[in-house]
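Hi there,

I know you've been waiting on this one. I reran it after we fixed the sequence typo, so this is the corrected version. Both the input and the resulting structure follow.
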Amino acid sequence: MGAQAVSLAVSTLLFITFTCCTDWQLMALADTEYVVINNALNESGGQKFESEVGETKAQSILTSATQFIRNTFGYDAGNPSKVVDKVTLYVDDEPTQGVVAFTSSDVSGTPNAYEIHYSQNYVDSLNGVEGVLYHEMTHVWQWNGQGTADGGLIESIADYVRLTAGLPASGWGQPSEGNKWDDG
């Protein structure tokens, strides 16, 4: 499948995934609050996050990711958008085994609030941190069919956003590598 066909297929999936919901509201970008909490200041990854990224730069990345995602999904062109009032990024010192990062609704139950948990074990370069945050912010903004969308579709859309932002993961295959469609 050629690059244009893949782009069309992904665009179609994005349109279907993000327009098949019923409770739509447009949200102004400036209304989202970004909070950064580094719980790993005593760990090497937490210290690296603090010295190479820090709170201000992390908030800037989250804001830039939001702008990019909203543009990619066509939200600012009048397509329906989720309401996101607050995103809290936690750099965790005790990560979930083997998980780079994950996104969830705010555990306190605050409506329209989300948490991103980033393992300090996976803090590497600024580019790597940006890529992970773009991927996780995609989960904040994307619809998931009220939990019924296939996990592979949800993850693929987040990877697509990360890739089109120019932030591929260092371990991702290159075009024409591999033997299957998802090998590179």
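Quick highlight: The first helix runs from residue 3 to 19.

Best,
R. S.
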